[in-house]
Amino acid sequence: MLIVMKFGGSSLATNDRIENVAQIIMNKVAEGNRAVVVVSAQGKTTDALIEKGKSVSDMVQPRENDVLLSAGEQMSSSLVAMKLNAEGCAAVSLLGWQAGIMTDANHGNASITDVNAERIISELDKGNVVVVAGFQGVDCENDITTLGRGGSDTTAIALAAALGADICYIYTDVSGVFSANPSVASDAVKHDEISYDEMLEMSSLGAKVLHNRSVSMAKRNGVEFEVRSSFDDKSGTKIRKFAAKKDVTGIVCDSNIAMITVSGIECGESTCRLFELLADKNIPIDVIIRSQGSDKSTGTVCFSVASHICGWISDVINAKKDEIGFDLITAEYNMAKISAVGLGLADSCSVAAVMLSELNALDIHPRYITTGEIRISVIIPRFMAQEAEKRLNSAFFGKKEER
Amino acid sequence: MLIVMKFGGSSLATNDRIENVAQIIMNKVAEGNRAVVVVSAQGKTTDALIEKGKSVSDMVQPRENDVLLSAGEQMSSSLVAMKLNAEGCAAVSLLGWQAGIMTDANHGNASITDVNAERIISELDKGNVVVVAGFQGVDCENDITTLGRGGSDTTAIALAAALGADICYIYTDVSGVFSANPSVASDAVKHDEISYDEMLEMSSLGAKVLHNRSVSMAKRNGVEFEVRSSFDDKSGTKIRKFAAKKDVTGIVCDSNIAMITVSGIECGESTCRLFELLADKNIPIDVIIRSQGSDKSTGTVCFSVASHICGWISDVINAKKDEIGFDLITAEYNMAKISAVGLGLADSCSVAAVMLSELNALDIHPRYITTGEIRISVIIPRFMAQEAEKRLNSAFFGKKEER
What we know:
homodimer; eight-stranded mixed sheet; 12 helices
């Protein structure tokens, strides 16, 4: 079998962990597999390089920043290849440009446009494990690019697709995809498999295990992959096109939420101008709630944003107060968004009812509720979020006899 | 004018020094020059990366080590380009493979075989300062190579040759090439110019300012270059084919010397086998002295080696004692080699006489003396070396009225 294995930064953070990673790879090779390994930068290397760039210049050009950041995966790929060779397992490192990872020129957040896998195939044919530096590629000008956050996952999925790999393992520091965050809900259930769409929805709503982009690429290319832990290498969670249908797949909590309320805004053009402004500034908005005042022509618009940009975006809106036309802007910080995600939600009427009744039992009465094709989200005060996540996980996934 | 400027690791060690380097470059650009800049890794980065590789594996493969080490110059090239751009000076970084630095596949100590300068020229034509990562290249397999110690100087000279640059500046932490080490001999004289051959001899004998290989490449390609300080950017020392002829150009001290004495060795084949063994182990030997015993068929062979390999090489020779055939091997550690270098030495009979009489005045009576076309070297105890260097510098370069 041809397998692609991706290891994240925390799986490579120390020399002991590199040794552990080498052991996992050698086990797979000993079973007769041909292996392509994709590595992230060690531990906090990428953050340190970002800080270094900023310390030299307060104007960091994306092209030069990509040259700087790509050194992180360059170093870890050579270290892993060294370790494998020293253990008697023939290996060779390849950087993005050597591995044929072609991208567009969108420095800092480039998309893979093509993979020229000849060099990788020729190294596999020589009997080498090929260790590819993740997160990086090269554009048509021969300039180094980076793929943005979660980029090494994307590299792995793209290589699995280009090579027609039999399986792609994404090794990380958790053992799979859970029904809720296991460090919050101790009875969270690990899924054996879930669908691309469920995974996409969960990632969008704040689940940290995988980045949206890599899941989209896997879905587009039909790459089946598995998330598992590099600490035990036991079966994790397979992400594939179809998976056993459940009403609810997971409870996801994003505790980095603020609500902005714009009141006394005219319902027609003013509201349009407000959202044009937000689109213009590239602000992703999830929950939006409108209510009309008694005079019917003006009303209130509430929407959620990531809390760390709340102050900035409030200022941006206030600066255009006259142009847009509204009375007042206020913000509620310290909010959280709890979502239930599941392919079965579309067909089930009971999920919303169960969710609200469980929250009610905790004396939580969310003012903001929004639904999508396969999810229901509520916005609640952040200090109640962990209790709510635990309770909802137990309601949907807990052992029946314990309830 | 098209100029090549090379900055060493100590000139780039901190953010303040990067700023200083950017200022020097911008001054040259403001004078109307087109500039190609070659950078080393910052400060002690290369040593840190070497240690990192060794810590992961006690078997470091040269190919993978080159991938690891080349990250050092990659980071510094992007940082310098960032700083220049931030200051309003258009700049672009290029790594060895992007800059067309072609080398052989001798990982860790590769030689530049060719320079494909198209990309550099196209960036210069766009009005960019081109910041090239020194010390690195790419072989015909598209694998990254490094050029060995002093490699960034070699990169600069090779680029100056390929581009037909008008001048090549090697910026370092000293202000030029001196008649002796200015931190030892306070009245050491800075040369305005010296010839390639003098510089080569001085580098071979232990002068640290330039690496042999870069000087050889400059000589071979007729590249005139100038060593100057990145701290003041004042005129330094030009190295060129012809320079004003002096009896003595410099006093060079190498204090990392040990003498090995092999006694009771047969003068014919045994001695040959000894030196074959040393050649086999790639041991560079400078001073060799033979003396015959009273029986005429056996004698003593003394030779100098770098002191840090003295123990190891003594063991190597002892292990072959029966095969070679000798009585005893002994070593004198803590020796130093003082050399006088000058094109005029070939024609002057007085230098040796002056040298020995000056040393005699210090009560130093060297047992080992060796001469070459343009140099005379003596081996003396290390603790006397600084006194000797100072005295000889004053004798050959001191102001007459002060003596």
